[in-house]
Amino acid sequence: MLNESGPFKQSKILFNRAKAVIPSGVNSPVRFYEPFPFFAISGKGSKIVTIDHMTYIDYCMGYGALLLGHAYTPVTNYVKSQIDNGSLFCVPTENEVELAELISKIIPFAEMTRIVNTGAEATMNAIRLARAFTKKKNIIKFDICYHGTYDYVLVNAGQAHRGVPSSEGGIDESASQTLVLPYNDFTELEQVIDTNDNIAAIIMEPVPANTGLILPEKEYLSNIRRITREKNIVLIFDEVITGFRLALGGASEFFGIQPDLATYAKAMGNGFPIGAIAGKKEVMEQFAPMGKLYQASTFAGNPMSSAASISTIKTLIEQKNKVYPKTARTCDSIVRGIRDVSDGYGLDFVLTSIGSMFHLSIIRGERKDEGLMRKVDPRIFKLMYNELLKQGVFIPPSQFETCFVSYSHIEEDIDQTIESYSNALQKVKEHR
Ligand SMILES: Cc1ncc(COP(=O)(O)O)c(C=O)c1O
Fold it and tell me: Which of 56, 70, 86, 358 reaches 20 to 30 Å from 64, CA-CA?
């Protein structure tokens, strides 16, 4: 447990201040942790530093945003070089054009890109784009995928897969246009599509990474690509996590499947707030003012975020042959180490990884069982989380969240991480 007398004294004091003026003391629910979260003051490379001056190897990494690492010098320098020129003009800038050109260069179907500020803004407008383009209303999403906190996608499956709001404040009429289906079940998807000709879009994380980490089964993505083409349904890959991370061209490049639209955020700006909707020209041209779909934002394409993204993407292009193999190797080494330790302790666990992402659940079950993560005993997760923290390793403070490796993680991090997991899992074993 985090406690006041331990290395979290200032965090506790700050959290008490925060609770008085910020709902639940946090600006995003996943940051909350019982009895209080630690507060950060800085980050460099693979490390995050708390207000109590504790340093941790970070695997939360801005929930996947920091592919290059904290305060990556070329990116921060480029942003600094822009900052004195002004932070917002709300007229077009060359940076925005350069950014869209870079995206088109590396993502073949990204004939056009509209820059936004966040992942949720990107997915919300991609869905509206699909509706405007097809003149149909329903969308399909998958139960384990997360796309942001707005009514079309913040839904649980209701009767016959029709969504109902999964949050207070949601509108039934809006949620009911969303059909929620199990991921990796193409037969069920096909049946629903065959009996409904009002489906505008399928939106999916090509590799769901918000309810544990689930890999698409063989042929699943290509079958979805085929059926969406046949039925005039817009296929949206939500690459907010996988974009620029799984490969330079994201999951689409990794699996060799081109959707009609894709949404990006996170790794696109290496920690600066930016997102994008990219896709085929004929779909993208629905956007106003030339098209009839109104989408707008004061801060879209702002000089700081655009500069961060240009610098990030240029680094990724230049160092493509280093970034992706190195992050995947680091991740593989950690995963192999954790697997050996877990096997050694005779623990039931599900350990999944792809590229620079991994997820461990201490639970009996099959990786294929998508509902599995919801069955994880939160007390076991908490024990593991707290023990890892004691050992100097910070993983996302939720059993559902994926761990992210960055280009800045180094050899010593790998060794310390495996040793930390070994100690933490020993505690879990003793507890069981
Ligand atoms: C796959 C996916 N889509 C969309 C979002 C929403 O992005 P943001 O938090 O930037 O609005 C997230 C956030 O975690 C995500 O993981």
Answer: 86
